[in-house]
Amino acid sequence: MALKRVLLLLPTASYRNDDFLAAAKRLDVEVISVANYCHQLAPAWGKSPIQSVPFDQPVAALKQLLISLGRKPDAVLAVDDSGLELAALLCEYLSLPGNSPEAVRQTRDKLAFRNLLRRGGLRCPDFSHLDTDTQAANLPPPLAFPVVVKARRLGASRGVIRADTPHAYAQAVRWVRDIQAKADRDSVALGLVVESFISGSEHALEGLLQDGRLRVLALFDKPDPLDGPYFEETIYLTPSRLTQDKQNEIAQTVQRACALAGLKTGPVHAEMRANAQGVWMLEIAARSIGGLCGRILRHALGMSLEELILRQALNLPLPEVQPGAANGVMMIPIPQHGILHGVRGLDQASAVAGVSDIQITAIAGQLIAPPPEGAAYLGFIFAQGSSPEAVESSLRKAQQQLVFDIQAAVSVNEARA
């Protein structure tokens, strides 16, 4: 009997490639690795054509892949946002289970997603589309300060800025346009989104869709206030400290939003705010949690999150979630724009009670930047404990032990000024 085959879209800059490849090895699954190395450099590096596929041009990428694919895979999975639309096109062409390209496009595009929420009657901030020619002098009606200016398809808080005054708003529009222009080849056509700021606590739901039905794997609290002007995420904690009624409301809201978008299968990562008015959806992505954060679910799942996702895609048995000790992860904040030279205090941080692992993912010589420009983290601290409060304390104590040697550099915004 032939091994099951899975085609993995593995972006060159993803944190998660190794975890997916390790999960495939545990399941004895044959992997077709597809990457997005530069097509001009890939031949000199000895890379095959499927290693230089333009994920951000999914129609062209589909044609390139079909030429080289060979035997049909049993499943297609995108590891991160950049490959989601291509994965959907491949599944559609190969008649494999997956979400439709249209559903993926609607959830990747912040403007399309806001329109979707509004049409579906879910809580949604007032919002407006700023095309490329729109001047930033006046706030679009009916918006009132504070507002948040957003790039349309970027993730990890990149290109997201709060503005409380006309001057800050005009500056935010210019800055976000700059960021989007460098990161998205379609930036001119896309324009930006500006929306009312929603106060409240922020949370994230990790789930799995099967035939359109949502299975909640975890609900995370984000204990740090994310009020701007930039929105750098730091700590995720589970289990959530919200009331069970509020947790149920979040799950029901995510289920409704997935149905509106037409998402039917595979992993789902949703971000939302909760306040006295109810639950406000911020984002839904048809992929699992980013970075290395999914590792905090290993104990509850009895396996890695990546293995769970592969099992579902290949129609293999799935485990039940077994909630136990509290878990948390800190995406180590980047203090300044500059060049990383090294880190001290790892031994002391690792010795903090409750800390289970520390992974420094940034490397010496790497140019780093905090939001709204940055798209990477310094690393991840993992902790486990008897309660979310104990885990949060361990994460913060460990962070205090770490000292990053960063050579200051002039930020893009400062240079422009």
Structure report:
With about 425 residues, the protein is an alpha+beta fold. Among the domains are: about 5-105, Rossmann fold (3-Layer(aba) Sandwich), CATH 3.40.50; about 125-195, ATP-grasp fold, A domain (Dna Ligase, domain 1, 2-Layer Sandwich); about 325-415, D-amino Acid Aminotransferase, Chain A, domain 1 (2-Layer Sandwich). Helix content is about 30%, strand content about 25%. It is built from 13 helices and 18 strands. The strands form five sheets. It has a four-stranded antiparallel sheet, with helices on both faces. A four-stranded antiparallel sheet has the order 9-8-11-12. Helix 2 packs across helix 3. The longest helix has 18 residues, at about 165-185. The radius of gyration is 21 Å and the shape is globular. The model has no long low-confidence stretch (mean pLDDT about 90).
